[in-house]
Every structure is written in C-alpha cells, then in structure tokens.
Amino acid sequence: MIDLTVIWACIIGFAIVAYVVLDGFDLGIGILFPRLNVGPERDVAMNSVAPVWDGNETWLVLGGGGLLAAFPLAYAIILPALYAPLMAMLLGLVLRGVAFEFRWRDPAHRAGWDIAFAGGSTVATFAQGIALGALLQGITVTGRAYGGGWWEWLTPFTMLTGFGLVVGYALLGACWLIWKSEGALQDKAYRYAGGLGIALLVVIGVVSLATLGLEAQYYLRWLAFPGILATALVPLATAIVTLLFYRSLKSRHEARPFLFALCLFGLCIVGLGISIWPDVIPARVSIWQAAAPHRSQVFMLIGAAIMVPIILAYTGWAYWVFRGKVGQDGYH
User: Fold this and answer.
1) Whether residue 72 has a cis bond before it, omega within 30° of 0
2) Predicted local confidence at residue 26, as pLDDT
3) How many C-beta neighbours within 10 Å does residue 106 have?
4) Model pTM?
C-alpha cells in the first residue's frame, strides 16, 4: 500500500532542498554585497540574480503551505515555537525584495537600498538558521500543543546554526559569482569562496559535534553499531567533495565550484535526514502522528502532481534562457 504520509514528507523535503539550492545563492549575493565595490561590481551581482530571485522563493511557499496542509499538527506546534525567527525571516525577505526593486528606481538613495538589501538578506538567512537549530535542539510539546516559552529558540546552539547558514549561503553566492561574472569581480569571488569554504567546514564540524549531545536518538543514529558503518560515509563524502571543491578553485573552473558547494549542502541535508527521520518534530512528533486525514492528502497530492512539474518547467526554462555571463547592463 502506498504511504501518502511518506510521499508528502518527501514533497516537502524536496521543496526545502529546492529552496536552499535556488534561493541560497541569491541570499548569499546579498550577504556578500557590502564586500563588493559600489558601482559595476554590485550592478553585475544584482543583474546575475535579477531574472530568477523572486521565482526561487516559490519553493519556500510550497514548503510552508505543504506543512500546513499535510502535517497540520506539526505546523500548529512549530509556528508558535518559532514565531519570532520566522517573522524575522519574512520581514527580512520583504525588506530585501523592496530594496531590490527600489535600488534601480530610486538611484538618489541607492546607498540606503544597498544597505537594506544586504541587511534583509543577512537577517532572513540568520533567522532560517536559527529556526533549523531550534528544531534540532528540540521543541517542548505538551499534549498536542507547544509547551515552551517565547525565548526557547534562543540558545548558543541556534546562534551557531544561524551563523553557519550565513556562511553557507555566502559561499553559494561567491560560487555563483564565479560562474556568472568575469574579470576583477570573478577574481574576488574566487578568493571569497576559498575562505568561506574553510569557515563552512569548521562550522559543520562544530554543529555536528554539538548535535550529538542534544538528543539520545542523534547519538544512536550516528555512532551506534552497525549503523555507524553507513553514517560514516557522510563525513567521508564530505571530505571528498571538499577536496574536489578546492581543486576546482585552484584550476579556476567556473561552474564546478558552485556544483560542489551545492553537494556540501546536500550532504548536510542528508545528515539532517539521518538525525530526525521519521520525525517532523525531532524526538517529539512523527510524520504519521502529525499527518492530515487520508482524503485530504489525496486531494492535495492531485494538485501537487499538476503544479510541481509546472514550477520545475518554468524554473528550468528561466535558468536556461539566462545561462550566460552577466555584465553591468545584464546578461550577454
């Protein structure tokens, strides 16, 4: 028998992965923005994401809406637990979106809009990392509701995960600029990618070690025998991808650093899945406990089967059309 609950968990997981892949680099552009020279460098960076940035956030809507529709109990617990960081994320996304548009239409105040674009991107990213860390460290559940306090999400661990995601998205942004830019900006992006790659590996190591002490199931999933024979492949793959990443930087490949950076994110997501599956709220609520009724899942699955391929099609077409290098006046 087909388990619709697992299918919906995979759909939401896919939406989250797609969001990280597609929106991570353009948030990273915003994080790096203060490090780019005023004028042509910033214009090229903005032009490189101008055709795709708003469409990338479609996946965030799908993930959040899918959680509400397919796992209403999880949504009802997670939202009040993470209300503050989620609101900060949404406000940051709104601010960067407004700044993105007004930067071109209000050149007299472009310096202010640049600050707003960088600030909104950084706040949104940091808030996403905090939300992930708060989910990993555990949410207090009483009965079928959130049982913790307003500030339960605020801990050193969540600050660390927030910082880690900022570093990670900045790395994606630098690698995107390597792929899409030329000349001095590309050289600068190569330098930033090298340093950010090291910083990300350090953060991944620290977060991974800290995570093992948060819940007993994390420790058992990763270090208990014989499971460790499989989970050990994740750090091994991370080391291999890291080696390939730095070789691609040294050889000055243009597309490969971005692809290898995405692979690092993919391995982090695999590690997250190993830690929490099949829970939607780790060690508290499983996907089956949080799932919507069967008929609701069937009804929504029909809509998802129609819309997700359409979204993939127009997203792929947009990236194909704007596949070249970028200049100050737009794509070549």
Assistant:
1) no
2) 87
3) 12
4) 0.91
pLDDT in tens, 133-189: 988 888 888 887 888 788 888 899 999 999 999 999 999 999 999 998 888 888 899
Q: In this predicted structure, what is the pLDDT of residue 330?
A: 54
Alpha carbons 332 and 330: distance in angstroms, whole number: 7
**Angle subtended by helix axes 4-32 and 58-70, to nearest 10:** 150
Cβ pair 99, 109 in contact under 8 A: no
3-class secondary structure, 326: strand
Question: What span, in angstroms and rounded, lies between the C-alpha atoms of 102 and 80?
Answer: 33
State yes or no: pLDDT of 329 exceeds 60: no
Domain boundaries defined on the chain: 4-214+279-331
Q: Peptide bond preceding 226: is omega within 30 degrees of 0, i.e. cis?
A: yes
Give the helix, strand, coil percentages of the chain, each rounded to 5.
80, 5, 15
Is the Cβ–Cβ distance between 121 and 27 less than 8 Å?
yes
DSSP-derived 3-state class of residue 281:
strand
CA 126 from centroid of its chain's CA atoms: 10
Give the CB-side neighbour count of residue 183, counting CA atoms within 13 A.
Answer: 9
State percent of the chain over pLDDT 70.
97
d(Cα 83, Cα 21) in Å, to the nearest integer? 24
Evaluate whether 259 touches 265 at the Cβ level (below 8 Å): no
Q: What is the pLDDT of residues 250-276, one digit of tens each?
A: 888 888 999 999 999 888 888 888 888
